[in-house]
Every structure is written in C-alpha cells, then in structure tokens.
Amino acid sequence: MEEYRLSNYAFSEQFKLRTKAFSVRIIKLFQALPKDAEAYILGKQLLRSATSVGANYRAACRARSKAEFVAKVGVSLEEADESQFWLELLVESNIVRSHRLQDIMKEASEIIAILTTIRKNASKK
C-alpha cells in the first residue's frame, strides 16, 4: 500500500488540488443559485456531496491499509456520482440552464472516471 501511494505522490497531490477546486466551484455555484426553496434544497445536497469528494480523497491518501484506501476512494467516488446527480437535477428541473453547468458537469464526469480507475487499480494490487 505504501509503495502505491509513494509511486503516485505527484498525481495524488495534483488530484487533491483538483478535487478542492471542484469544491470551490460548487460553493460559488451554490451562492449564485436562485433564492427559492427548490434551488436551496438541491443546492445544499450538491454542496454537501461535492465538498465530500475531496475530503474523502484526502482521507484515502492517509489510509493505513490498502483496504482502507480502497474504501475511502469508494466513498469519494460515491459522493462524486451523487454530485453529478444533483447537477443533473438542477438542469432538468430548469433551475439552472444546461450551458451554465456544462463545464462543471464535465469536471464531475472526469473526477468520477479518475476515481473509478484509482479504485480499480488499487483493488488489483
């Protein structure tokens, strides 16, 4: 396990920054949402799940075992997928126009793909 983390240290640090930047973008999106009940409820769910992606990835990087690493990455992946769900609901409920969320939805998809690969590779070793 330790060997896995050390060999990918630069990637790990870069991905920590990327997931944190994703969280900041979601915070700014939440602040810009319309001030109605539906937007607030969906936005709050998105805020919770999106900020959890980076927090759980950071926890995975401090894992004490391979099993703990895989589990924490799995939680991060679940939160990223949930974030994508809330973004889709914001668009499909016409709270936010799709073109405004296009970039952040792409980022969510890329984070999901990366976390899926990390979990798959870590599970093999």
Automatic annotation (TrEMBL):
InterPro entries: 23S_rRNA-intervening_sequence, 23S_rRNA_IVS_sf. It comes from the Bacteria. This is Four helix bundle protein.
